[in-house]
Design a protein that fits this description.
Elements: H1 2-12, E1 17-25, E2 30-42, E3 46-48, H2 50-57, H3 62-80, H4 82-87, E4 90-95, H5 97-101, H6 105-115, E5 123-128, H7 129-133, H8 137-149, E6 152-158, H9 165-170, E7 175-178, H10 190-205, E8 209-213, H11 218-226, E9 231-233, E10 241-242, H12 243-251
Parallel strand pairs: 2-4, 4-5, 5-6, 6-7, 7-8, 8-9
Antiparallel strand pairs: 1-2, 1-9, 1-10, 2-3
Helix pairs in contact: 3-6, 6-8
The structure holds guanosine-5'-monophosphate (G) (2 copies), manganese (II) ion and sodium ion.
Length: 254
């Protein structure tokens, strides 16, 4: 409850931050995309976990307001750093079910991108499989608007709960992000390793680009790369970083 009113103040005063976690392409040998992740700091309690404030915000209109604020923040950052945009293919933004089912929200997000003079195709929206499960007319309509505008869709957290063929087929995803929980045990248990490898093969055979999330160790990296995964997001390469640190991490690599 205390966090709820703190959230309200943070929204009114635009006090959220955006961190960026770069995604590495093994084939290209460099970072090719970024995921924007919201951060919030309480003056006395310290950092509030995104799981906590996103969860609370999703219970009301707050999540849509947060989505619009963060969209502006990301656009402002990109506009100020054109050199980053030349290096990176797109930026991934997380969207919640509730905000997508709100009528007019998709159009407002696209409107912000255009207002900043940026290309919609420079963005990719991440939707969690739980979202895709709570399938609705308004969700598919929002997805169609995004695709029409040239915005790509990524199925987030695949394997964390509701992974099945229907979830994958429901919306026009171009990319699928394998949840970090799927990596647990791949180095120790051949069956778990086979499972991960098979999911990668199945999704790639269906035409999806696959991202391995949560890669932390050289051993994990070695395995997923042998299994044909090109896109790697994880602490092995980089944690989520504040804007300035992200710029030096991505631009220094050339
Ligand atoms: O780094 P991490 O703890 O940031 O993120 C936790 C979860 O919070 C992620 O699964 C991510 O999808 C979600 N998340 C982070 N930022 C945002 C945001 O701005 N909007 C939405 N809807 N979800 C977010
Ligand atoms: O939206 P999503 O749940 O995909 O957000 C990614 C989450 O995964 C963020 O909370 C981010 O901080 C976290 N994450 C990214 N890479 C790693 C990693 O290598 N290890 C762990 N433990 N978490 C990671
Ligand atoms: Mn995500
Ligand atoms: Na995820």
């Amino acid at each position: 409850q205390e966090i709820e009113s703190f959230l309200e103040t943070a929204l009114e005063q635009d006090r959220f931050e955006v961190y960026y976690q770069p995604v590495y392409s093994l084939r290209k040998g460099g970072y090719v995309t970024l995921e924007a992740l919201s951060r919030l700091r309480h003056p006395t309690l310290g950092p509030v976990a995104p799981e906590v404030f996103i969860g609370i915000a999703e219970k009301s209109d707050q999540i849509a307001r947060l989505g619009l604020l963060q969209m502006r923040r990301v656009c402002r950052f990109l506009k100020e750093h054109r050199e980053l945009m030349e290096q990176i293919q797109n930026v991934k933004i997380n969207l919640s079910p509730t905000e997508l089912m709100k009528s007019g929200h998709a159009g407002r997000l696209i409107g912000i991108i255009r207002e900043f003079g940026l290309k919609p195709s420079y963005f990719q929206f991440e939707i969690t499989e739980t979202v895709a499960t709570e399938y609705s007319e308004s969700l598919s309509q929002a997805a169609a608007e995004f695709v029409e505008a040239g915005i790509g869709l990524c199925l987030d957290d695949f394997g964390a709960g509701y992974a099945n063929l229907n979830t994958v087929l429901k919306l026009p995803f171009s990319e699928i992000k394998l949840d970090k929980s799927l990596l647990v045990g791949i180095c120790e248990d051949d069956r778990i390793a086979s499972f991960y490898q098979s999911i990668v093969a199945a999704l790639q055979n269906m035409g999806y680009a696959v991202i391995a999330e949560g890669v932390e160790t050289p051993k994990e990296l070695g395995l997923v790369s042998r299994w044909g995964v090109d896109l790697i997001q994880g602490y092995y390469f980089s944690r989520p970083l504040p804007g300035e640190a992200l710029l030096s991490a991505v631009l220094d690599r050339e």
